[in-house]
Design brief:
There is one protein chain. By secondary structure, this protein is mainly beta. It has one domain. The protein has helices at residues 49-56, 96-101, 111-121; strands at 2-6, 11-16, 21-26, 33-39, 42-46, 66-68, 74-81, 87-88, 133-135, 140-142, 145-147, 159-165, 169-175, 196-200. A hairpin with a 2-residue loop joins β10 and β11 (145-147). The structure holds zinc ion (ZN). Zinc ion is lined by residues 34, 93-94, 110-111, 176, 178.
Length: 201
C-alpha cells in the first residue's frame, strides 16, 4: 500500500492502475478534497461531473456511481462512502480569480493552481481546469437552488471515500485552500485547511 499525504492547502498527483482502489480521507474532518482524474495515456480525457450526473441523475456522488470522462468512458467506481454522502458535483474549483473576487490580496493558493502544479510535477502542462468531484463538501439543492450554510452537516474526522479505477489514471487531489470568512460558505472547517490522506490499496 502506498500512502500520499496531501499537505493542507496543497495538491498531489499520482498514478492509479486499472482496477486499483484508492481511499481518500480527511483525518481532521470538514476538509474539501477536490478530486481530478484523467486517462493516463491521454490527459485531455478528464473526469467530468456533468457527464457523470446525467446517467446517475444525482447532483451528489453516491456509492454505485461510475465517474465518467468527458468522452463518456467509465473512469472509476465509487465503491465505499465513509462520509455520510456529503459530497458535491456542482461547485467549480476555486481559482485565483475567485479569491480576488472574495477580496484576497496577493497570491492565494487555489485548487486550480494546485492541479496545475501537481500535473506539472509529472510532466503535464494543463491548459484547461476541469470540474472536480468535491469530496467532503456539503451542498444542498432544493427546488433548483443550491446553497451551503455553516449550519449544514459537516464531514466528521476520519471521513473517507473509496474509489476503484476503471482505467489507468492520473489523479490529483487538492486539499482546498479556502480559508476566508466567506459569505456563509462552510467549505472547510474554521481555522484553515487541513491535510488529506490518499492510500493506494
Ligand atoms: Zn478549492
Amino acid at each position: 500500500m502506498e500512502t500520499i499525504i496531501v499537505p493542507a492547502g496543497e495538491g498531489r498527483a499520482f498514478h492509479v492502475n486499472d482496477g486499483q482502489q484508492m481511499r481518500i480521507t480527511t483525518p481532521k474532518g470538514q476538509q474539501s478534497a477536490d478530486f481530478f482524474a484523467c486517462r493516463a495515456a491521454d490527459t485531455s480525457e478528464w473526469l467530468s461531473p456533468p457527464h457523470t450526473w446525467m446517467p446517475t441523475r444525482s447532483l451528489h456522488p453516491r456509492v454505485g456511481d461510475t465517474f465518467l470522462s468527458r468522452l463518456r468512458q467509465p473512469m472509476a467506481d465509487f465503491v465505499e462512502d465513509g462520509a455520510d454522502g456529503l459530497h458535491d458535483f456542482i461547485i467549480a474549483p476555486c481559482d485565483a480569480i475567485r479569491y480576488r473576487q472574495f477580496g484576497a490580496t496577493g497570491h492565494h493558493r487555489s485548487c486550480a493552481e494546485n492541479l496545475e502544479i501537481a500535473m506539472r510535477g509529472l510532466g503535464h502542462e494543463i491548459t484547461v481546469t476541469p470540474l472536480a468531484v468535491n469530496f467532503f463538501t456539503n451542498t444542498v439543492v432544493e427546488d433548483g437552488f443550491m446553497f451551503n450554510t455553516p449550519a449544514a452537516p459537516v464531514v466528521q474526522p476520519g471521513g473517507y471515500v473509496v474509489l476503484q479505477s476503471r482505467m489507468d489514471l492520473i489523479c490529483v487531489v487538492s486539499s482546498c485552500p479556502y480559508d476566508l470568512d466567506g459569505p456563509g460558505w462552510a467549505i472547510n472547517a474554521p481555522g484553515g485547511p487541513t491535510e488529506i490522506i490518499v492510500e493506494l490499496l
